[in-house]
Specification:
With about 190 residues, this protein is of the alpha/beta class. It contains 5 helices and 6 strands, in the order H-E-E-H-E-E-E-H-H-H-E. The chain has a 4-stranded mixed β-sheet, covered by helices on one side. The protein has a two-stranded parallel sheet with strand order 5-6.
């Protein structure tokens, strides 16, 4: 066998190995599911109902660990009349949650409660301590502007409240104050 034939044969084998390696790499590489994609097992999906001032209201399916902004984007994004300042776009979503995006100029009560987030039963009269703004928290009995700031600071520093009783860890909220507001708050 001539030297040039031998080199061609070696080059062909090398090219074949490179192509095989690329094919194997691409075939075994995992891809991450996109927001709203239904590739996860049912147990890992959160089913969220997004309504109000969004472009495509309806039920969306999201993987765990996502935020309200992801659910809203899966519903086509905010419509031009949406008032995003009334909701916490960074709040984590939970399975069965309803997100009601209010339109500009709507009173909070018209937007299904002051938090604009409904529980699975469609109730929205409680203030969601994980998403409410300063003005909403200030409406709670015994909670003024300074206390509302401390609640928001605690929530931001601890990644939100895991249960309503955790509110007692906020400086200035003791058992008596908690008893006055516990029936007016939710997560």
């Amino acid at each position: 066998m001539e030297k040039s034939e031998k080199l061609r044969w070696i080059a062909a084998v090398l090219v074949g190995c490179v192509i095989l390696g690329i094919s194997l790499y691409n075939g075994t590489r995992k891809t991450l599911p996109q927001v709203g994609e239904n590739t996860l097992p049912q147990s890992e999906l959160n089913v969220i109902y997004v309504s109000g001032a969004v472009n495509h209201p309806g039920v969306v399916k999201l993987s765990g660990g996502l935020r309200m902004i992801d659910a809203i984007n899966a519903a086509g994004g905010l419509s031009p009349e949406a008032d995003a300042s009334k909701i916490n776009l960074a709040q984590a979503v939970k399975d069965g949650m309803q997100i009601l995006v209010p339109a500009q100029g709507k009173v909070a009560a018209e937007a299904a409660g002051t938090s604009a987030i409904l529980d699975g039963q469609g109730k929205g009269s409680k203030i969601n301590i994980n998403s409410a703004g300063k003005q909403e928290l200030d409406q709670l009995p015994g909670v003024g502007a300074a206390m509302a700031d401390r609640i928001i600071e605690y929530r931001n520093n601890h990644g939100g409240f895991r249960n309503v009783e955790e509110l007692k860890k906020v400086n200035g909220i003791g058992e008596a104050k908690f008893e006055k507001i516990k029936d007016k708050i939710s997560l």
